[in-house]
Amino acid sequence: MSAWETIIGLEVHCELKTATKLFCGCPNMFGDEPNTNCCPVCLGLPGSLPVLNKGAVELAIRIGLALNCTVAPSTFHRKNYFYPDMPKDYQISQYDQPLNAGGWIDLPEGSRVGITRAHMEEDTGKSTHLGGTGRIHGADSSLIDYNRSGVPLVEIVSEPDMRSGVQARAYVAELRAILVAVGATDGRMEEGSMRVDANVSVRKPGDPFGTRCEIKNLNSLRSLQRAIEYEAARQIDLIEAGERVVQETRHFDEQTGRTGTMRSKEEATDYRYFPEPDLVPLNPSRAWIDEIRSNLAPLPKARREHLLAAVGEVTPALVDLVATVVDRDLDTLVSAAINAGAPAQLAIARAANELDADGVLPSPASFAGTCQLEASGRLSATQAKQVLAALLDEPHGDPAAIADRLGFVAMDDGALDTVLDAAIADHPSEWQRYCDGDDKLAQFFVGKVMAATKGKANGKAVIAAIAARRP
Amino acid sequence: MTTSAISLAQAIAARTTTAAAATDAALSAITERDGELHAFLHVDADAARQAASAIDARIAAGETVGPLAGVPVAIKDNLVMTGVPTTCGSKILEGWRPPYTATVVERLIDAGAIPIGKTNLDEFAMGSSTENSAYGPSRNPIDPTKVPGGSSGGSAVAVAAGYVPVSLGSDTGGSIRQPAAFCGLIGYKPTYGHISRYGLVAFSSSLDQVGPFTTTVADSALVSEIIGGHDHRDSTSIDAPAPSLLEACGRGVAGLRVGLCSDLLDGADAVIVDRVRAAAAALEAAGATIVDLAIPELRLGLSAYYLLAPAEASSNLARYDGVRFGLREERDDVAAMNVATRTAGFGPEVKRRIMLGTYALSAGYYDAYYGQAQKTRRLITNALDAAYQGVDLLLGATTPTTAFGFGDKVADPLSMYLSDLFTIPSNLAGHPAMSVPFGTDSAGLPIGVQLLAPGRRDDLLFAAGAVLESEVSA
């Protein structure tokens, strides 16, 4: 029996980082006192009318361009359904004429995922259900905060191009990096700035798509991957047991790691879409789109390629480190350090593992200097890391001076030989096994030397000395 | 009060009279007669007196005041004013006090007008007689056994009864022009987008427009210039200068070609047809050329309208769900509360249109109903545009009949809908139109003739309307 293939398409809702809401002048702020950033428009009071926020349109166009979409004249539609946190009982969204359509994202691992569309819409308020299970059914009462009502969203719909939870996770991570890079969102999934719905089905390779289920509101990369993997396994079990997958909307329980039914297709709402008569068609001029394109910040993919171009041999481990550096916005610093003479690979590795993008960063010259001292053997890896830590207090400090102050004196070869001799003498059987071909034990002796020198020995020099002693 | 808004404002500015006196006169007329006529749902006498005193004080201090300084006005109860109850003639909004003011009301107040109160209407502006008001109908001051028309019936009565020289209404399918015709007033529906809808409680957003009731064409022009013009809070508001309406009132019709349109006439009572022909003759005598023409597409308007307007209404009226404002019928869960609130709060005509509109937008029916109606709307607009290649204006009847009696059409919604036959095409096309009183029937009930113009040529209505007005008063 051939293996099952999982088919995944994602809908990602991204809150735009505008100063004000999509259709009124209220502040777009997360975490304020409930119901303080509201007005007649975002409360849907009778007689109020929406006025489109041009800044939100610009961010939406940036997203479209960054996702290689065609930006086209578009219209707004009303999506009609009753829900207490949606003040007008319809959502202003886009339907058959979205602003952005037909793009793609290239993932770091090399695959390409198609983007069906990226359209604009307004967010709803936020309900908190008290009592019962914490969901609306069976709750004792509900509180509604309309601060989020009318916050601008872009919904990014992918093609069903993904084949694993891991790939879906990589897609959302890359999408998030792109959206953050172009300044469209802060990308904070835990605060709901990005919310993911996953459409999952399974089939035998070559067969038509199977019946899909939609898993709603996945709010972390980890939940996304877990939910998809659980759901695919559930569907496979059903089919292999001779049952059918029922098309339905499901939710993911983070505690149990399982998905459960929210509503079936039979209960699906008829949204009665029709053109929003209170807004005029959105027809961004070619000149405006071109201006936005020319001001678009470099995208993660280009930034990664730029860094990788600086290193000689590209290994999978290095690709991951570069992805981390770009993801944390450290690539500008790393590039500057490389230009200042730092060895590229070392600078990338130290930035990825030692620097805190949200904290104090060393100056490019100080960072480059530290990397150079390590590369030359003047500092061990452990010492270099301590110098980087010390640079937090004096970002423009002289790494050599800091090393002196910390008492980091490079060991000469004679001193290293003495320490290594002692280590071998103390552990004759381990040394014999190493000499007999058990390579793992090299690391054992590195550890002994490091311990004896309190980390002052240069790791590379130690490894070289150990290898040289092998008969 | 039979004096016009313009002459009253002049008299107040010249200190021949005062805003306080004008306001008191309005309030005492209301006290005297509105128990019977029921134009108002809410009268704010104290606020009106205070506003009038403030105007008088400013005039006494020699300050410059607006062109409507001291003129009492009435506001249809689907336009919001901060802190003033707004019901839309519905139980579902009983007790709601909006926290903001409609642009048109704000502009009237800035021009010095004194809002006296909020006027009666068919619930959510759905109706042609005010009989659909949850608070009881208004009565026609010319014959209180007759309806005043609707939906802006209360605003028509407030002017026709002489309480105030100016009131505001809204016109979605004829809701200003039809009651103006029934009550012998000037009723003007502007080009869509000429007057802001911000603060007008929506019935059918793509059709609704605010406009004035007045006793003179010049008053209509003045008030429309004050409340009209671009409003950044209404995205459908036209952002371009409009032609001067006041100036147009003195322009005459010499050289204009006026189309006498059989499809805006056939089916009207003979006495009304006679008066429309008399109006054509008057325009001709004033130098216009009369062209007989037919635009059969206009006949399709009624059925398109009764799909589009309910479709939009079904969405616009969804927000009356008991969650945030107005009526709430408490139940154990939200969905049951929504249903109970809407069942108790809406009247039968509103429910009928919500059902109709919901159906027209439903999956599987959208193309056949809403989609087809949109195509029909485009067809009518194109037919009107084509007609305007040959004429500057169209002339027809405003209504098929004069004011009817209470209960005459309530049992048969379709016959009620037919009163909008001649007025609907302008709303569908977004074009301006005006009803001008032009004589009476044998019972003395007013007859209105209707002038229609192409989009953004509202000025032509005022030029022709002023000619007809002078003919009547001559």
Concise overview:
The complex is a heterodimer of chains A (471) and B (474). Chain A has 15 helices and 14 strands.
Can you put this structure into words, describing what you see?
The complex is a heterodimer of chains A (471) and B (474). Chain A has 471 residues and is an alpha+beta fold. Chain A has 3 domains: 5-293, no CATH class; 300-405, no CATH class; 413-469, Arc Repressor Mutant, subunit A, CATH 1.10.10. Chain A has 15 helices and 14 strands. In chain A, the strands form 3 sheets. Chain A has a 9-stranded mixed sheet. In chain A, helix 9 (364-375) packs antiparallel against helix 10 (381-390) and helix 14 packs across helix 15. The two termini of chain A are 53 Å apart. The radius of gyration of chain B is 21 Å and the shape is globular. In chain B, helix 4 (103-110) links the parallel strand 2 (72-76) and strand 3 (114-119). The longest helix of chain B is centred in the C-terminal third of the chain and has 21 residues, at 367-387. In chain B, helix 2 packs antiparallel against helix 3 and helix 10 (301-316) crosses helix 12 (348-360). The mean pLDDT of chain B is 97. Chain B has helices spanning 5-13, 19-37, 45-60, 103-110, 153-160, 177-183, 217-227, 245-248, 270-285, 301-316, 334-345, 348-360, 367-387, 413-417, 424-429, 458-473; strands at residues 40-43, 72-76, 114-119, 166-171, 186-189, 209-214, 257-261, 289-293, 393-397, 433-440, 446-452. Chain B has 3 domains: 5-243, Amidase signature (AS) enzymes (Alpha-Beta Complex), CATH 3.90.1300; 250-301 and 378-473, Amidase signature (AS) enzymes (Alpha-Beta Complex), CATH 3.90.1300.10; 304-367, no CATH class. Chain B has 474 residues and is α/β, with parallel strands linked by helices. Chain A binds chain B through residues 40, 43-52, 78, 80, 82, 84, 87-90, 136-137, 142, 144, 270, 272-274, 277-280, and chain B through 78-80, 86, 88, 93, 96, 98-100, 102, 197-202, 204-206, 232-236, 311-312, 314-315, 318-319, 321, 323-325, 333-335, 338, 358, 361-363, 366, 370.
